[in-house]
Design brief:
Layout lengths: L1 E9 L2 E6 L2 E9 L2 H10 L5 E5 H6 L5 H10 L4 E4 L5 H9 L4 E4 L1 H5 L1 H11 L4 E8 L2 E4 L4 E6 H11 L4 E5 L11 H10 L4 E4 L5 H9 L4 E4 L1 H5 L4 H14 L2
Helix pairs in contact: 1-3, 4-6, 9-11
Length: 245
């Protein structure tokens, strides 16, 4: 299992939100590229970037910060927030982003997800399933849909999606531990890789997710606050994988 540091961007800064609430923001650094390099130095093998302005407004607003991160590090990055159509997915892949994350568009414009799959290929596309109480949220988690996380995932599989990120939005940024039950249920219903975000508070949480067989876990608040030492976390999961436990 990979441990992916999260770099959430707002107004060009590296921030964290509590439960996705834009009014409960903590600014951690004014130089996202330096933050990215810090995580690389601690052993990160992939970075998870979110354009929070883009997620809410539908137009990516932190392109300069994203470009700076891509240029600063030599590991793959995945990006979500404001990716609403296949043309934007193509632009991002051409600019060096390895994986592009569709969230709102998966609900509002699934044809754009399908077009992106056909254009850049399934290995470059992820669908973000952001859910509260099992129901998908969109537009930076401001709007609640009538679609369940499992139903959306199945619909996306039918389009050809082969990788998902599941976030329990009620736990994101709270350090209240992941929703293991929901993760297990989604995993049981999908045969494709799942990356988990939301609520991760300790290395023990990461171990628990690894035991569920998920492909990756995204850590934000825990590594920024010091609750998790990223280097130690990666080493722990690597040792666990090597021992087959």
């Amino acid at each position: 299992m990979e441990v992916l540091p999260a770099i959430d961007l707002r107004n060009g800064h590296c921030v964290r939100l509590n439960q996705g609430d834009y009014d409960r923001e903590t600014v951690f650094d004014d130089n996202p590229a330096e933050v990215a390099q810090r995580w690389v130095d601690q052993g990160a093998r992939r970075l998870h970037i979110v354009d929070l302005d883009g997620a809410r407004d539908g137009v990516r607003a932190n392109a300069a910060a994203v470009s700076a991160i891509v240029e600063a590090v030599d590991i793959p990055v995945q990006l979500g927030g404001g990716v609403r159509d296949a043309a934007e997915a193509r632009r991002l892949v051409d600019a060096g982003v390895e994986r592009v994350i569709f969230g709102t568009a998966a609900i509002e414009a699934p044809e754009q997800v399908q077009a992106a799959l056909e254009d850049v290929g399934a290995s470059h596309v992820i669908v973000g399933v952001d859910a509260r109480d099992g129901m998908v949220q969109t537009r930076g988690w401001i709007e609640q849909s009538a679609v369940s996380a499992i139903d959306l995932s199945k619909q996306m599989v039918n389009l050809g999606v082969q990788r998902f990120i599941y976030t329990d939005t009620s736990r994101d940024g709270t350090l209240t531990h992941p929703n293991f039950e929901a993760v297990a249920e989604l995993s049981d219903n999908l045969r494709y890789p799942i990356i988990v975000a939301g609520g991760i508070a300790s290395i023990e949480d990461l171990v628990g997710l690894a035991k569920l067989g998920v492909e990756g876990a995204i850590s934000g608040m825990a590594i920024y606050s010091g609750a998790i030492n990223l280097k130690r976390a990666i080493e722990t999961i690597d040792d666990m994988t090597a021992s087959g436990s």
